[in-house]
Amino acid sequence: MELECEPRGGRLIVRVTGDLDLSSAATFRSRVDGWLADTASRDLLLNLRHVSFIDSVGLGAILGRLRGLQRTGGHLAIVEPEGAVKAILKIGGIDKVAAVYTSERAAVAAWGADERGA
């Protein structure tokens, strides 16, 4: 698994590539939590376009970040999940507790609308 971090306007965009599973979840948790703390970001956008596989441990890692963000009034957005990854997220109910967008552009635009009160 590879992770790329981009702070943007008080929010954090993390692009994930590869598998998010038992073997990579601890690294995912540690690095994302570190980036959130370092950037003082309250909102997290996870781009999962290039995630090829996710298991229950990976799903739990995402939900753990969501719970942490919610405790501080922050939000989680998921971007571009595809195929089996999209199905696992739906089965896990993430689409019910986090916004899911078809592109980073759409997510960032929605964030901007939130800031304007729209």
List the helices and strands and how they pair.
Elements: E1 2-8, E2 11-20, H1 25-39, E3 43-54, H2 56-71, E4 75-79, H3 83-91, H4 94-97, E5 99-101, H5 104-115
Parallel strand pairs: 2-3, 3-4, 4-5
Antiparallel strand pairs: 1-2
Helix pairs in contact: 1-2
Describe this structure in words.
This protein has a single domain, classed as Transcription Regulator spoIIAA (2-Layer Sandwich), CATH 3.30.750.24. The chain has helices at residues 25-39, 56-71, 83-91, 94-97, 104-115; strands at residues 2-8, 11-20, 43-54, 75-79, 99-101. The longest helix is centred in the middle third of the chain and has 16 residues, at 56-71. Helix 1 packs parallel to helix 2. It has a five-stranded mixed sheet with strand order 1-2-3-4-5. The model has no long low-confidence stretch (mean pLDDT 92). 47% of the residues lie in helices and 31% in strands. The protein has 118 residues and is of the alpha/beta class.
Short description:
The protein is an alpha/beta fold and 118 residues long. The chain has helices at 25-39, 56-71, 83-91, 94-97, 104-115; strands spanning 2-8, 11-20, 43-54, 75-79, 99-101.
